[in-house]
Specification:
Layout: E1 6-7, E2 10-11, E3 24-26, E4 29-35, E5 40-45, E6 53-55, E7 79-81, E8 92-93, E9 98-99, E10 105-112, E11 121-130, E12 133-136
Parallel strand pairs: 8-9
Antiparallel strand pairs: 1-2, 3-6, 4-5, 5-7, 10-11, 11-12
Length: 150
């Protein structure tokens, strides 16, 4: 995004307009909860860079603006998990297994290869707790994205 006010401690004020400045930021992103009462998804966005990096301008790193969307250092579309699109049409929504007419608790777990907070990520697990019951995905091995290979 270009609407970041400071990038690595430097003001992003050159060519500032309504939606941002000259530079943008490339960084790994996790959309942890995109939802309404009918649908839910979580989306990972991978990058070639391994830390927050200024892009655009004369940096030599493409932010992926406009027609250059797919030449970005990061996967702008991302790889998401949505129950309905994965074929589980009765899991999430009004009157379904996770009934969005009722209160729920959403739990997202990041499972690593060695079980520690610092290990390599091997799985993202989403659980819902409703009416004292834990509801987990029925289709766990769905995600296969090939938008970018970094």
């Amino acid at each position: 995004p270009h609407d970041i006010k400071f990038i690595n401690g430097e003001a992003n004020m050159l060519d500032w307009a309504k939606h941002g400045g000259r530079y943008g930021v490339c960084c790994v992103e996790m959309d942890i909860w995109e939802a309404n009462k009918m649908s839910t998804a979580f989306t990972t966005h991978v990058c070639e860079v391994d830390k927050q990096t200024r892009c655009g301008g004369n940096t030599g790193i493409t932010c992926g603006d406009g027609a250059a969307r797919y030449s970005s250092a990061c996967d702008k579309d991302g790889c998401d998990y949505n129950h309905y699109r994965a074929g589980d049409k009765d899991f999430y929504g009004p009157g379904k297994t996770v009934d969005t007419n009722k209160p729920m608790t959403v739990v997202t777990q990041f499972i690593t290869t060695d079980g520690t907070d610092r290990g390599d990520l091997k799985e993202i697990r989403r659980l819902y707790v409703q009416d004292g019951k834990v509801c987990s995905h029925r289709l766990l091995h769905y995600i296969q994205c090939a938008y970018h290979t970094f």
